[in-house]
Amino acid sequence: MSKRIAIIASKGTLDWGYPPFILASTAAALGYEVEIFFTFYGLQLLEKNLNLQVSSLGNPGMPIPFPAPVILQAMPGVQNFITSMMERKLADKGVAPLEELRQVCLDSGVKFTACQMTVDLFEVDINSFIDEVGYAGTAAYFEFAGEADITLYI
Prior knowledge:
The protein has six helices and five strands; from the N terminus they run βαβαααβαβαβ. Strand 1 (4-9), helix 1 and strand 2 form a beta-alpha-beta unit. It is 38% helix and 16% strand. Strands 4-3-2-1-5 form a five-stranded parallel β-sheet.
């Protein structure tokens, strides 16, 4: 039996979209059986057309090129500016776009499961999701995670 890694993806911003896909694709390349359980705002990562933003609000560790009080960060246009700054930094450093990393995961056999309760709670139109998504409740996640060698919450 191969090693297993279970990942919970609960955040749906551009910067928080990278960790589950990088970890999952790396684990799959190392021979792990991998499942990502997408819940709450992590469901955004399953959209066919990703249009994710970055927010410095609530993320005091984010390095921004100038000191900016929270009130300034909340002003209109700042989130778009920070998002474009992050996209430029990712491109400059040769980091693959999020869509590409997601596809690498799928091509590597990573299982994507959307939390059915969250889908129902937010009345999500599942037609907006990529086709490879499965749907299950938390019990199904625990069934997989209970046998996992590593579990991560992101």
